[in-house]
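User: Write out your own:

AI:
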Amino acid sequence: MLVYLGLLYVIVCWGLNVVLVKSAIVHLDPLAFTALRFLAMTPLAFALVRATGEKIRFRREDAVLLAICAACGYGIYQYLWILGLANTSAFASSLLGATAPVFTLAIVALVGRERIGGMRWIGAGLALFGIAIFEGAFAGHATFRIGDLLTLLSSISFACYNVATARLLDRYSPTALVAITMTMGMLMILPAGIPRLLHADLAHLGWGVWGPFLFAVVFPIVLTWPVWNYGISKIGAARAGLFGFLVPIVAGVASTFVLRASFEPHQLVGAAVCLAGMALATILGRVSLSQIWAERSLPLER
């Protein structure tokens, strides 16, 4: 139960982050915002490691896999995500970001890391269908923009992070892994972000930027990714990834307060369908369609 509560906490923070960052990058260049954010977050990640009494031990043989995690979870991912968010709506960003669990399921099934039951596939598909309804895909409101494509690519990147992380958590603690990969990811972000940051007029930015910035520094990664990594270590990448379907719901609610968005009937229906898919995938995730069919096909005397 504690694991699931922790994952829900992560999802709430991520949902709020989409909306708050969207409101901030209207006034500050997206790459400048990201560079400044990572310059502030990385020391906090190491402070978190120190506070937990852990030590960071870098294994040279893990260098390639750590670099892949850093790129998929921070470097490449952040480029795709922030530029995608700058060129689409917070709702659309949340919707396409929620496809990461689907890609995670596909990757772990392809590489044979986990056995994925058929009911989990159906639950994932139903949840994604519900998000599509929530975002207006069947109500004539959906549009596909360059930002949507970038966000979809960021989802694929994050799915790769989920799977790669699962291979490292037997040798690194969640907090140590965040500190190592965040540092490597920051080095990938700064070359493009620093020039934009140097041209930004930071002195004249108000709390409309600094408020979301502080939230984005403290919560979405530093105080959530260790919990996310812990969840993956306990219940697996595929099942933990399914919680990502709730991000658009949180973002939708937050948007009513921050971006003055309003709900329509199809959005409420989509939220219900999404939650039903999540419940189906979680409760019946271990049941495969082939097993159900085999049991129903056996003689009655069984």
